[in-house]
């Protein structure tokens, strides 16, 4: 369990499954939540879209505010309790949303979901605890693959379940989270020994403290900026890409869905299978630079593509962007002590308040009124 240990496969496997199920549960409700909001808004699509946008903003705000707290808390009491609280908290939250009789209760569910999902940063800190520094980028890439896998499978499953009953996806999400929590309760070991824990401080467990951590550690600030700009740019594809493909190439919703699924599958392959060998061969810095270069090239091809086939050629190029994030995370984790891994991951999540999720939400929001027709 020292920083130089090769890692604990069973523990990492659980964290991988935890992140996958969390993202799967979040993805399941994406197809049905907008229509449920509109139904509560009296069938007014415009008003429902505004409320839905507010829901997404509040979810991201909760992530931004509570990620530093979650990370700092895990540095004090250990990773296991925070991860388990997240699993059970998300499960109960989805039950609340499944039974919600009004918009107020649904709104409360999104607030709780944003707070409890903030502990995703703790999962990354757990991996840093049980993985040697030189292998962290590869493991972080595997967690990135878990994100992609959840968002490829989740919406499809949610759409099928929503066709049976609009509330059924929430019950499925609740079951996944609660079962994951029960599994972790009996299987998941603690990754942070007591002697490596740090005292809890409200000064560190808030957004301002997160900024101070980034500023105080040499080399961490520039990497944090790279991470933030990367997440910000990443949101463009699901948010703007949906409208762009429909307008420029006349894609149907099915074609758009297949294209976005292709992006997700390519991202899973890159982060799950290519990141570790690339880092081993080129190092974290070289892999980071290559990933960012592929991102820029991929978006240029998408923007200039005269036909749909050329646009599709850009997808595997853009997917190589997935090499950049785990590489930067690996570099960042090397710059802080074992006692600061939770605070670091919380700070990183604070500067990325759900931008990937918000990209999906805003993409659905743009085309939502047309879907109702």
What this model shows, in words?
- The protein is mainly alpha-helical and 373 residues long.
- The chain has helices at residues 9-28, 33-40, 45-77, 79-99, 103-116, 120-130, 136-164, 168-187, 207-216, 220-234, 236-249, 253-304, 308-319, 324-334, 341-350, 355-372.
- The longest helix is centred in the C-terminal third of the chain and has 52 residues, at 253-304.
- 49% of the residues are buried.
- Mean pLDDT is 76; it is low at 1-7 and 353-373.
Structural class of the helices, strands and pairings?
A: mainly alpha
Give the termini distance in whole angstroms.
56 Å
The CATH architecture can be named as Up-down Bundle
* CATH fold-level assignment: Growth Hormone, Chain: A
Q: What's the level 1 CATH class?
A: Mainly Alpha
Query: How many structural units, i.e. domains?
Result: 1
CATH superfamily: MFS general substrate transporter like domains
Q: Specify the helix fraction band.
A: over 70%
Which sequence of SSEs, written as H and E, runs from N to C? HHHHHHHHHHHHHHHH
Inertia-based shape = globular
How many strands in all?
0
Q: How many strands, what sense, and barrel or not for the largest sheet?
A: none
Q: Please state the average pLDDT score.
A: 76
Strand content: under 5%
pLDDT under 50 segments (min length 5)?
Answer: 1-7, 353-373
Number of helices: 16
Query: For the CA atoms, what is the radius of gyration?
Result: 20 Å
